[in-house]
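Work Package 3 (structural annotation) set out to generate three-dimensional models for the target panel prioritized at the project kickoff. During this period the team completed the workflow that converts sequence records into discrete structure tokens, so that structures can be stored uniformly alongside our sequence database. As a representative example, we reproduce one entry of 432 residues exactly as it appears in the project archive.
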Amino acid sequence: MAVNFIKELRWRGMLHDTMPGTEEYLMEQMRAAYVGFDPTADSLHIGNLVPIMLLAHYQRAGHKPFALVGGATGMIGDPSGKSAERNLLDEKTLRHNQEAIKSQLAQFLDFESSAANAAVLVNNYDWMKDFSFLGFIRDVGKHITVNYMMAKDSVKNRISSESSSDGMSFTEFTYQLVQGYDFLHLYREYNCTLQMGGSDQWGNITTGTELIRRIGGGKGYALTCPLITKSDGSKFGKSEGGNVWLDAKRTSPYKFYQYWLNTSDDDAEKYIKIFTFLTKDEIESLIAMHSDTPHQRILQKKLAEEITIMVHSQEDLDNAIKASNILFGKSTSEDLKGLDEATFLDVFEGVPQSEISKDLINNGLDVIGALAEHTGFLKSNGEARRALKENSISINKEKVKEGYSITSDDLINNMFVLLQRGKRNYFVIRVV
């Protein structure tokens, strides 16, 4: 192969562990590899981006990527004991989620081309649904000893850390067999010889290589990437509102862009290697420029731009930058009125709001009444007059004087008016 996949992962900080001989094996010819994804929602989130990037780099290196949707697991619920809500899916929901996930993966992987290394999406429900319990323990379970399963760190850690009353469920204990069988099935059906995943998956992956050796009479390989953390110790992929999703309906492109833009310097230097396809030279140049002028946040801006375009689009990025400039840069009333309702609410999330009747607007609302009596933004009419004389009041980002009336022409999305005193003091009127 022309591109050394392992070497690429190594300099990007995306390689945690790999089976001996994997690098040489992948350099010989095109190989098939897979990564598994949980289909309990109809969107992936940024915690899934590392395995997605693994598959994308794999395909770019000339190999064939398989994305496996864990529908069988989705049908039995989350076995980890850590989920407050057990996501039991029916087949219709599962198929819907599978298609939604495929469309998100298609932003990174080529499923459509006629090339030999076109990506393939598979669902383990398709081969697990016809297995009987007796058939599974006869054909799969008998090949792996309890001693082997107990030796896995994931099992040992769970058993040693929990009280005897909680313990580990049978489902969770045998999950490594289900995942291991997936690897065996893909090995038999597609000559898939490599499984990739997070470092916490090493035990499950190597159970698969063991099944390939004992049942398939072949050799499977394992590769893991580090679990991504933030430099301040908080969990990567979470914001105050929970997961940062790839679906624009769940996390708007503006919020998505802001998540990356707010990355610390240390994290930005790490993330730009992991979450973009920029070359080593390009990244080293950006790091050097950033270190010269850190206040310009060159790394954060480039990271946020690259990943927003990949997950969403250039248009979404442009709109996110425009929305960001409304709060932090120079913008006009027209820029403000160009925001859709969801983005407007995202931009001004946490800004104080007050509702007023549409009748007040239709008749023309005097700016002093809008600032004080009808909203409470300012404490009194006198304070409102002083602020207007100081030229510190803006309506929808444009300065106004005493005597100005707010009308329906000022409404953003036929619903909002933005009041502002000075540079950073905002207030939203919601017209109902």
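The mean pLDDT is 91.
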